[in-house]
């Protein structure tokens, strides 16, 4: 029996690896528990309750600055979030705390460390964010997904395991290979959508008119561009499903012959596990340009093509789609190379280490809990 507290979120790229860990933990034993800590405005406030896990909220702002000392200062300058974190940890009594990045991760992991609870962080990107770089010094284990991230953390703590993928996404994906007649392009801009991608793709349609009847698009726009993108496809006579957000990414991937997307780390992990060929357009304003560094790993392996948004015209994008469509053997080779980078076992490996941390710290049964606390752990079922 183990209780894991997962702190962080904000965007899907941080939260979904946490959900993947949660799924692994609760399917191992019906009395295992997972609690999330996030913020009201993060994607977690919508997704976590839907997934059936309890969510505690803290009020945190982004932390910017440089160096360990300035982060500590910034964290202590947020006394409310910090006090809330202590309270949550005292109430929840987790055996292990895992930070997945995003606003809530910093104060909660720091508070857990001060309370003597074993901590770990999971860094999704090739270049770690500021908070994780600092938390790396205090946590017991640092999980990374790209070799490039190793250099930013104490060597002995690092475990390169890849980014955990949601079990539901994997299971459904394996079951949902769909036969389709048209060449299907999945277009999406990370968990929030991407204006740059929305614009380039609608511009690209102008140069793809002759292929209209053999192309099918599934396009996720994010909140703001839904109507204009929908209109773009409709006015130009293309067959397209245009949505604000895709709930079922497994069937979206399953139907795609080609994916056009940003280079968020969780997206890339999914592309490799699902063996998909992709055109990557990294988010140009990502901190330290980390999306381009993420993308490089796939490009160097021959699994993807990458274009800088500033250099990519609609016409160039159209030409690339056209070329890949007319060279299925090239697409196949990209798919194969993507598959070689996939780490489908990441969630399991992460959960194994959580068990080790619990056993080392609290013994094989975890923390002592009063009979009432233990009783509250009603057996849960998880689909
Ligand atoms: C702007 C920004 O700072 N983005 C960061 C954020 O990206 P972001 O939150 O966009 O994350 P990713 O691209 O890594 O992952 C997106 C996740 O959302 C899911 N999804 C996406 C679209 C959709 O309609 N439905 C859906 O479920 C995908 O399947 C995937 O699981 O976190 C990533 C992981 O730390 C970073 O690499 C990104 O740089």
TrEMBL record:
GO terms for molecular function: undecaprenyldiphospho-muramoylpentapeptide beta-N-acetylglucosaminyltransferase activity. GO terms for cellular component: plasma membrane. Its EC number is 2.4.1.227. The keyword Cell cycle applies. CDD domains: GT28_MurG (cd03785). Cell wall formation. Catalyzes the transfer of a GlcNAc subunit on undecaprenyl-pyrophosphoryl-MurNAc-pentapeptide (lipid intermediate I) to form undecaprenyl-pyrophosphoryl-MurNAc-(pentapeptide)GlcNAc (lipid intermediate II). This is UDP-N-acetylglucosamine--N-acetylmuramyl-(pentapeptide) pyrophosphoryl-undecaprenol N-acetylglucosamine transferase. It comes from Myxococcus virescens. The lineage of its organism: Bacteria, Pseudomonadati, Myxococcota, Myxococcia, Myxococcales.
């Amino acid at each position: 029996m183990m209780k894991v507290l997962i702190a962080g979120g904000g965007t899907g790229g941080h939260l979904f690896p946490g959900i993947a860990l949660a799924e692994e933990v609760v399917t191992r034993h019906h009395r295992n528990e997972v609690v999330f800590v996030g913020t009201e405005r993060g994607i977690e406030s919508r997704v976590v309750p839907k997934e059936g896990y309890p969510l505690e909220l803290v009020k945190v702002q982004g932390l910017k600055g440089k160096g360990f000392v300035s982060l500590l200062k910034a964290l202590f300058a947020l006394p409310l979030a910090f006090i809330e974190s202590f309270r949550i940890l005292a109430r929840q009594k987790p055996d292990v705390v895992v930070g997945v990045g995003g606003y809530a991760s910093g104060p909660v992991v720091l508070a857990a460390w001060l309370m003597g609870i074993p901590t770990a962080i999971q860094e999704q990107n090739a270049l770690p964010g500021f908070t994780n770089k600092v938390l790396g010094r205090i946590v017991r284990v640092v999980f990374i997904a790209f070799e490039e991230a190793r250099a930013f953390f104490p060597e002995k703590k690092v475990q390169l395991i890849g980014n955990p993928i949601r079990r539901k996404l994997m299971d459904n994906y394996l079951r949902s290979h769909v036969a389709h007649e048209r060449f299907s392009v999945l277009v999406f801009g990370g968990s929030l959508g991407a204006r740059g991608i929305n614009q380039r793709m609608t511009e690209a349609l102008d140069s793809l008119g002759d292929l209209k009847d053999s192309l099918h698009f599934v396009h996720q726009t994010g909140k703001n561009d839904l109507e204009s993108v929908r209109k773009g496809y409709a006015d130009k006579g293309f067959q397209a499903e245009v949505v604000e957000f895709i709930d079922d990414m497994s069937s979206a991937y399953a139907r795609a012959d080609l994916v056009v997307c940003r280079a968020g780390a969780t997206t890339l992990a999914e592309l490799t596990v699902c063996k998909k060929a992709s055109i990557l357009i990294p988010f140009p304003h990502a901190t330290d340009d980390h999306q381009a560094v993420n993308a490089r790993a796939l490009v160097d392996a021959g699994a993807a093509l990458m274009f800088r948004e500033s250099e990519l015209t609609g016409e160039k994008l159209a030409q690339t789609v056209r070329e890949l469509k007319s060279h299925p053997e090239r697409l196949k080779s990209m798919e194969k190379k993507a598959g070689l980078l996939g780490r489908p076992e990441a969630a399991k490996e992460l959960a194994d280490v959580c068990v080790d941390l619990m056993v080392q710290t609290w013994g094989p049964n975890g923390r002592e809990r009063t009979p009432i606390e233990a009783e509250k752990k009603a057996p849960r079922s998880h689909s």
